[in-house]
Write a structure and sequence with these properties.
Layout: E1 6-11, H1 22-41, E2 46-52, H2 57-66, H3 70-87, E3 94-97, H4 101-116, E4 121-130, E5 135-136, E6 142-145, E7 154-155, E8 172-176, E9 184-193, H5 199-208, H6 215-227, E10 232-233, E11 235-237, E12 252-254, H7 256-271, H8 275-280, E13 284-289, H9 295-309, E14 324-326, E15 329-330, H10 341-347, H11 352-361, E16 369-371, H12 373-403, H13 415-436, H14 440-461, H15 463-469, H16 471-491, H17 497-506, H18 541-563, H19 574-579, E17 582-592, E18 600-605, E19 610-615, H20 623-626, E20 630-634, E21 640-642, E22 645-647, E23 650-651, E24 653-655, E25 661-663, E26 675-676
Parallel strand pairs: 1-2, 1-13, 2-3, 14-16
Antiparallel strand pairs: 4-5, 4-9, 6-7, 6-8, 9-10, 11-12, 14-15, 17-18, 17-20, 17-26, 18-19, 20-23, 21-22, 24-25
Helix pairs in contact: 2-3, 4-7, 5-6, 6-9, 7-9, 11-12, 12-14, 12-16, 13-14, 13-16, 14-16, 15-16, 16-17
The protein binds one RNA strand through helix 6, helix 12, helix 14, helix 15 and strand 19.
Length: 677
RNA sequence: GGCGGGAUAGCUCAGCUGGUUAGAGCGCAUGAUUCAUAAUCAUGAGGUCCGGGGUUCAAGUCCCCGUCCCGCUACCA
């Protein structure tokens, strides 16, 4: 793309069922903010849009759990998220939300256009329906007993205890989470976007046209395209969301992944009446900042939607980051294993830039990275305090001390002065190149080089010594030091806007622009600076220990929760129990089921017969370990086909909280067929 | 099981289409310095570039076979 006329930067819409944590920041919002601020500083026409993603089933479930309405949930988290972003200086031009009226209208119109132009296919299918509540049930709205681990609070899409992915029809004894009624199967109609029809276009656009995309993004797209695309449903039976704008679609809403990316468009509409030039003019460069979990939506699905609609531009790049871990463990909202932005802002007032710095310096640009509090402390103390804060402080203090705060005029420059100043344009070039190619870690390092240069210059020039022998020379030295300081204020602005402002205020520097970066004459002789203050302060061990203790408390709480045994299930009668025919059996043969990770095909002698049982234990036992072992089998369980093999019965296993499976077997070898009661 | 990404100094990472003694920041050691938040500056020690084969005059870089980590996907009674 030749020099674009304008830029449109989007940042993944945070899902409004929880606050934002450092993983979101490092992956998406800090990079997008740095990029946007940089473009603004270059005087580009750029807008940055974001907003809360407020629809979808998890929000309705959370609302149910807390006994409030979905609107209450999204109002709560929208406010927290929006404030937290503002607190960290994540400077969107608009932070909207998908429950806004403009978005309803935009998403409806978008759907309607595709519908009218016959871009969808309609399909009917059988789905669970709650006769009492009179509505279809999303997968998450059906609870029942997990067929695998026996957890009686499994959801229709997943058992959270054993991690199994389920279909609603898999659940034993399914119940509606809304009314508790037993759901019935009923026919329902949905609309699908036939992604397969866009495969050729996507191949050409991405695989041929965007080889410059990051390896993780490009590779993931190629993987999907090579697997072959399937039609995807764009509607759901749910009462929370944007109604499908078609006659006879009562009780149906747009599927959340369909309406969420349209949120970028709606936000732009809310921001400016000129929104169309950002979305429909080929000379606009659109960039999506996202995490790696969103690659397929932003590179495959959303572009297909835009293409189906017609008239819209496509993203020029999608610089997705990997994930950030916290203290060697995966960040998890449900396990409360996170550093929450709103809490950080409370606990570390005035240290917004420290977090911005650390998360950028340690951003997961090429692979998953780890955030540790020790690293946070080290980067603050050894880099921000020692290098950046220290240089600015010593330069300003010296000017204050020797010249009462008035920048002295430079005399004739020595070769060394010139060589030092000549470094700066090269730093600028490297900084810009890295920013424009989304290498923010590297770019930050370049920005810090200005401060390193300053420290070296002062150490080599030794004004505190020279002042005794050649006071005239010191004027030149401190003039040069002041020029470097002004350059720092410009260079760090995209990364650390608060600090940049502090330097400007402290040194009374107005009118610095990016165009001046690298130049030597930014501050005229005679300019009066203010009183130097420290930009950063050291972070003591005790502060870090407190944060680690907080995490340790979370870990303990999580463990206590896991160790706690499941509550007892409802009572059953003796007759119920006697319906189950449980026998001792012996494994006579075992082999892994091809093309599966968890399945073993076991041939067992039940005493009654020799039969085949397929069991999901391959991650815990090898085939060899199972042969000859006595096991306990529920023999009158209805048969079921697994991977084309009919499984007749279930091997009883014990499972601990971590999901580890252990075979249950008789204490002493017993005859096969022995009845257990 | 299929696919994608990653593996380079103690830590976090650069290393473009293969080409002189593999680099940076932090940490560490030694020395210098004292304007500065014991901050700074210089020098140095640290690397079978995950393992094993191969192509080549030449491989961290290309090919093949493995191992480990992350993700997507299938499967999960």
């Amino acid at each position: 793309m030749k020099e674009p006329k304008r830029y449109l930067v989007t940042s993944a819409l945070p899902y409004a069922n929880g606050p934002v944590h450092i993983g979101h920041l490092a992956g998406v919002y800090i990079p997008s903010d740095i990029y946007t601020r940089y473009l603004r500083l270059r005087g580009k026409d750029v807008i940055s849009v974001c907003g809360s993603d407020e629809h979808g089933v998890p929000i309705t479930i959370k609302a149910k759990q807390e006994g409030v309405s979905p609107q209450d949930i999204v109002d709560k988290y929208h406010a927290i998220i929006k404030n937290a972003f503002k607190g960290l200086g994540i400077d969107f031009d608009i932070y909207s939300r998908t429950s806004s009226p403009v978005h309803y209208q935009t998403a409806s119109d978008f759907f309607r256009t595709l519908y009218d132009n016959e871009k969808f296919i309609e399909q009917t299918s059988q789905q669970y329906f709650d006769p009492e509540a009179n509505q279809f049930l999303a997968d998450r709205y059906i609870t029942g007993t997990c067929p695998r681990c026996g957890n009686d609070r499994a959801y229709g899409d997943q058992c959270e205890k054993c991690g199994s992915t389920l279909n609603p029809t898999d659940l034993i004894d399914p119940k509606s989470a809304i009314s508790g009624a037993v759901p019935v199967m009923k026919e329902t109609k949905h609309w699908y976007l036939p992604l397969d029809q866009y495969e050729a276009f996507l191949r050409q656009w991405i695989l041929d046209g965007h080889k410059e995309w990051k390896p993780n993004v490009y590779g993931q797209c190629k993987s999907w395209l090579d697997m072959g695309l399937q039609p995807r449903a764009v509607s759901r039976d749910l009462d929370w969301g944007i109604p499908v704008p078609v006659d006879g679609a009562e009780g149906k809403v747009l599927y959340v992944w369909f309406d969420a990316p349209i949120g970028y468009i709606s936000a732009t509409k809310e921001l400016t009446p000129e929104w169309e030039k950002y979305w429909k003019d080929e000379e606009t460069k659109m960039v999506h900042f996202i995490g790696k979990d969103n690659i397929v939506f932003h590179c495959i699905v959303f572009p297909s939607m835009l293409r189906a609609h017609g008239g819209y531009i496509l993203p020029e790049n999608v610089p997705a980051n990997e994930f950030l871990n916290l203290e060697n463990d995966k960040i998890s909202t449900s396990r409360n294993w996170a550093v929450w932005l709103h809490e950080y802002l409370d606990e570390f007032p005035g240290k917004e830039d420290v977090l911005r710095y650390v998360l950028c310096a340690n951003a997961p640009e090429t692979k998953d990275n780890d955030f540790t509090w020790k690293d946070f402390q080290a980067r603050n103390n050894n880099e921000l305090v020692a290098v950046l804060g220290n240089f600015v402080n010593r330069a300003l203090v010296l000017i204050q001390k020797y010249y009462e705060g008035v920048v002295p005029a430079a005399g004739s420059l020595t070769d060394y002065d010139r060589a030092t100043l000549a470094e700066m344009p090269a730093y600028r070039k490297a900084l810009e190149e890295n920013l424009e190619t989304y290498h923010f870690r590297e770019a930050l390092k370049e920005a810090m080089n200005f401060a390193r240069l300053g420290n070296k210059y002062l150490a080599d020039s030794e004004p505190w010594k020279v002042i005794k022998t050649d006071p005239e020379r010191v004027k030149t030295i401190l003039n040069v030091a002041m020029q470097i300081t002004a350059n720092i204020a410009i260079a760090i602005e995209p990364f650390m806007p608060f600090t940049a402002v502090k330097i400007r205020q402290m040194a009374c520097l107005d009118g610095l622009t990016w165009e001046g970066l690298g130049a030597a004459g930014l501050v005229p002789a005679g300019h009066a600076i203010g009183t130097p203050e420290l930009l950063f302060e050291k972070i003591e061990d005790s502060v870090i220990e407190a944060q680690l203790a907080k995490l340790e408390a979370t870990r303990q709480a999580n463990m206590a929760r896991e160790v706690k045994a499941e509550p007892q299930k409802p009572l059953v009668s003796y007759d119920d129990f006697m319906k189950m025919d449980i026998r001792v059996a012996k494994v006579v043969a075992a082999e892994p089921v091809p093309k599966t990770k968890k399945l073993l095909k076991l041939t067992v002698d039940t005493g009654i017969d020799t039969r085949v049982i397929v069991s999901g234990i391959a991650e815990h036992y090898t085939a060899g370990q199972m042969v000859g072992k006595q096991v306990v089998v529920l023999v009158n369980l209805a048969p079921r086909d697994l991977k084309g093999i009919t499984s007749e019965g279930m091997i009883l296993m014990a499972q601990d909280a971590s999901g580890k499976l252990v075979v249950v077997k008789p204490e002493d070898e017993t005859a096969s067929g022995s009845v257990i009661s």
